[in-house]
Structures are given as structure tokens and as C-alpha cells.
Amino acid sequence: MNVLILGSGGREHCFAELISKSKHCDKLFVAPGNSGTSLMAQNLDFSPIDFDLVKGAITKHNIQLVVVGPEDPLVSGIHDFIVSDPILKGVKVIGPKQQAAQLEGSKDFAKNFLNRHNIPTAKHQTFTTRQFEEACEYIENNSPPYVLKADGLAAGKGVLIIDNVNQAKDELYQMLVKSKFGSASSSVVIEEFLEGIELSCFVLTDGKNYKMLPSAKDYKRIGEGDTGLNTGGMGAISPPPFLNDKIRSKIEKRIIYPTIKGLELDKLDYTGFVFFGLILVDEDPYVIEYNVRMGDPETQVVLPRINSDFLELLFSVHTGALSDYDLKINESSAATVVMVSGGYPETYKKNMDIKGLDKVKESKVYHAGVIKEKGLLKTNGGRVLAVTSLGENVDRALKTSYHSIGKIRFKNQYYRKDIGFDL
Ligand code: AMP
Ligand code: GLY
Known about the structure:
Elements: E1 3-7, H1 10-20, E2 28-32, E3 42-43, H2 51-60, E4 65-68, H3 71-75, H4 78-84, E5 92-94, H5 98-105, H6 107-116, E6 124-128, H7 132-140, E7 146-150, E8 159-162, H8 165-176, E9 187-191, E10 197-205, E11 210-212, E12 217-218, E13 221-223, E14 227-230, E15 235-238, H9 245-265, E16 272-281, E17 284-291, H10 299-302, H11 310-316, E18 333-341, E19 364-367, E20 370-373, E21 376-379, E22 383-391, H12 394-405, E23 413-414
Parallel strand pairs: 1-2, 1-4, 2-3, 4-5
Antiparallel strand pairs: 6-9, 7-8, 7-9, 10-11, 10-16, 12-15, 13-14, 15-18, 16-17, 18-22, 18-23, 19-22, 20-21
Helix pairs in contact: 5-6, 7-8
The structure holds adenosine monophosphate and glycine.
């Protein structure tokens, strides 16, 4: 079959790598893709948010399956658009329909879903612009730290955790009244702070059945020791060594199973990945967020551990074959370390020559913010490369990734030297 992947990051490079190897893949396209995806697929130069161009590409290239990488097109309804267009009849999509995508698109929607289905999550209350005074009162009546979340999509920046009551009220004012995150913060969820260790679980679902994919732990902060600003992700490992059978079974029973059942009960059409952002409080799992897609860079440690034919697995969601699918997971551990341009996640320079990739033999290097110009690779974004390795344990995998990074050079490069440090 012909497949179109939407997106342009390391996650999509990793998708492209696995799908291109499938015996079921005839032609593979990525829109817009990057220099990495161009090695195994044809890049198409348009934004996934431009639905008419997506439609044009599907017809022109006779696409049977669209795999959506990032959340924006899903929250904007790409799935609904494709399946309701008479010309695109029969085209299948990996990624939920618009209403189900609200699990990521609206924190308030997600919290109501969680509470309705009795899935453990932090206690919360939602406030709109007109309820600013009430929101301040709520803060005064609760104890710090205060967790403030912009309701809508805010490119991973919409969550603030604040210790001081006055500062929390100031930030709340900026969000609710001064539109700090645009319309995304015209509604704010204030929730209880949960203390514990975070991990991410992933499933592929057809809306009724699911397969659990390998779990991961990511490192979001820019600085070593988990300090400084939040980023899209500076590294990840899989599996988290602390995830034992007892915890895994609690996660499935208390969180994953009721979530999939909840989708069915609420008649939310879902064919795709669910990414559970979890926190373990004394070994009890709580949901801190849903994402309706795979993570980046979590994908770059989860997918390399899948031994089954990845395209066959994805397509099984649309043929009723998912529940019986014999998913084969590699017992090795995986680690990825993200190399970024100095300054990221704030301002940084682009267009730096990237050297040494040809010398890396023991790791997979996934391109994110990279372009190819006149045969040369240049930086083109904050997160530039994700260097993934497998090993008999997380430690070995990390050692290999750091060794490989030693061979790669670009000006102002930065990476965290302590991924996995806390394990
Ligand atoms: P989110 O975008 O909802 O995943 O939040 C971003 C980060 O904020 C998470 O990865 C957590 O580190 C932190 N966080 C979110 N909600 C809570 C909470 N209720 N308690 C503690 N930390 C939280
Ligand atoms: N790495 C976090 C995310 O993809 O949302």
C-alpha cells in the first residue's frame, strides 16, 4: 500500500524508517518531512494543517493510509475531513477523530473524561476568564505548589507550577485575562500537585481493543538535574527500569482499560495511539495528561523495540485484526539523547553545518531540525538530532548514544549529559 506520514520531526523519521521496511509498503511519502525522511521516502512540501493539500496528495499518490504524527492536524479534524470526503472514500487514518482528539486539545475535556470514567487523576477545577476572582479564591483556599494549565494547545508551554500564592494569582491573571497563551488560556485548569515519578505509556487502539507498546521515561527540562525551562524533550529511555509487573498491571487495570472502555462508552471514534502521561505516587498511577499521538522523542525509543512489521500493526487497527495481533517486543533497552542548538528552547541560530553523521555506526540518528542544502546537512530547528541506541540495559544503551554523539559536531551544539541519571 501507499502511505503518507504527516509531520517533520524525529518521530516522523522513526515512523518512516519502520514503515519503509514493511513488506506491505509500496510507496512512502512524508509531508513535509525532513532530510532524514528523504532517505527512505518522498518528501512533499506542504503543511499537514493545510487539509486541501493533504487531499491533493492523497489522490495524486493513491494513498491508502495516512499516519498523523503531531497533534495539531488531529485537533483540527484531519481524520473527520478525510473520511467524510467522497473522493477520499476508503482512505484510512492513524489518529483519532476531532472530538476524541479533545483529550489532548482541551485539558478540561480530558479531566471530565477522567472523572466520568473514574480514572485516577489530580483533583481539579476549571475557570474561565469571567471567573478570575473565583479562581483566585480557589488558589487561596488550597496549598502550594499550584498547578495551572492552559486548557488548549500551547505547544507544551501551557503548564505552570508555582510555589508562591501571589505569583500564582499573577500568572493566573496573565493567562485568563491577558491571554498569555492566546485563546488556549481563556480557560484554565487548576489542579492538585502530585509528587512522584513520571512515566509515559503508549497504546495503539481501534477504539475497542488495544495493544500496549513499550513504555518510556522522557526528560523534558533543558538543564542537567531536571532544571531550567521545559522543552519538547531532551532524551528518553525505554523501558523505565522501575516499571515492574505489579505497577504495569495497576496501570492497565486502573488507567488503560477504563480509558479504552470510556472511548467506547462516550462514542469517541479512535483509531491510533494514546499516549498516557502518568505519575506514580507511592506506586499508584495517576494520569497527568493524555496525548492523542506518539511522543517525540519517546517514539525514538519505543519503536526501535518493536520487532513486528510496524505497518502491518498499524493497519490491523482498520481490519479488526488488532485484538489478535501478536505484537513482538524486543527485550533490549533503548535510549535516545537529543542534540539541540544552543539557546533552545528560547532563541537559537540555524544553518550550522552538521558533521560526523557518517562516522556513527552503533546508533541510529533521527533527524529533527535538519535540512539538506547542496548535499550538506545544516541545522534548521531547536531540536536537531535524536541519537538512539539499544543495549542489554538502559545504562549500556546510554553509553552507546553518548559515544556516538562524540562523533557528531555542529556549532553551538548542546545536549544533556545526564539522561537516565535518576534511575
Ligand atoms: P502536562 O503538559 O500536563 O504533561 O504537564 C507538563 C509537566 O508538568 C508534566 O510532565 C509534569 O512534570 C508537570 N505536571 C503536570 N501536572 C502535574 C501535577 N498535577 N502534579 C505535578 N506535576 C504536574
Ligand atoms: N516528549 C513529550 C511529547 O511528545 O509530548
